Amino acid sequence: MKEFELKYGRGKVKFSLPEKNVLGVINNKALKTDKNEDEIIKDAIENPICSAPLKELVHKGEKVCIVISDITRAWQKISKYLPYVVEEIKKGGVEDKDIVFISSTGTHRKQTEEEHKILLGEELYSKYKVIDHDCKDKENLVYTGMTSYNTPVWVNKLALECDHIILTGAIIYHFLVGYSGGKKSILPGISSYETITHNHSLSFWGKLGDGENSYVKAGNIDCNPIHDDMIQAASFVKPTYMFNVVMGSDGNIAAAVSGNYLKAHDAGRKYVDMIDGVDIEEKADLAIATAGGYPKDINFYQTSKTISNTREAVKEGGSIIILSECSEGLGGDEGVKKLLTDFNNMLDREKELRDRYTISKHTSYLACDTAERFNMILVSNIDPSLMKNTKVRVVKTIDEALNLVRKEKGENLKTYVMPHAANTLPNLIK
């Protein structure tokens, strides 16, 4: 038997599988470097891509807005790299009073003071205030233009009042836009609810019943309308500079890029593919996956990333076991629950999304669609009754999940284990 230990919430779960059944562990690959995190950050800042150094772009008397991620992205070690970004800005002559931090919450909840402290770190928190973006606060949003996809772009007023907008964050695979980071700090990060929902509604093909656009998926930006629409939205804002990190399998910063928000992101995506893109020679009968523990499995809404990546490793009709504690329940807004509980078939769910799109509904749609195509079992603290109108089954332990699969599908199942499924993307070699 082969023993495994996967992160779950703030703890870990253990299980074992017959060694003959294990196809492999789909995990991040280490990026070879002789630099520590501080050196990686400094090197990226000192070598901006298609841009002058940040210290040369900002000047005394100018106001600078630094857009940071929210607490659901705390894993990107925001408090580690922010001091270096701030130091570079201050080298340009910008005073503390002219620096503002806006957390790109998108449609996520507001954060606590303690969470702000985690994001900035003790030293920066003692000097600066963090403002949570509110996508529904119309008085603090400014219209900037309409994209070619007819997305009306409304952006945080405070950010637009600054002379410079600096984007920070991390680049990982994303099930809608292909890759997170870069322009995503603007849309959805600091955009209006209307802007965000119209952008994300581009994920479907032309008419009801056609389902999701096959170009809208993790690891793809080519012909991806959501990606292209976000790029157009960011062009209205004209960010001055971007600093993004790429995380390694050990949870540390493995690479970083800075400079022009388009060209630097291009370079960052290559790092993601090197670290998180995993070639597989065959698909499995079963995949057992976790996002990597808290906060990546903080709620069901966030679990969508894990689900979308995991299904790429499994044969159609195969089994998927997702470990996601969901300590904060469903997450998102009321749409997460609505799409789970108010409909009992995928056509009606698709119609609801097309008529009244929200991102929260889409995450539930993805889970329901996966459960239609695969035998999906969720190991979670979520109330199982929430899933009664879906084919998603909820159990409390990994042993319960494994027993269900073995009873229904047999003992000899070719299996992949995915310890960081929210990040790692299986790619079938054809």
From TrEMBL:
Protein name, per record: Nickel-dependent lactate racemase
Lactate racemase C-terminal domain ranges (all copies): 282-420
Pfam families attached to this UniProt entry: Lar_N (PF09861), LarA_C (PF21113)
NCBIfam families named in the record: Ni_dep_LarA
The species this protein was found in: Clostridium oceanicum
Domain LarA-like N-terminal: 8-204
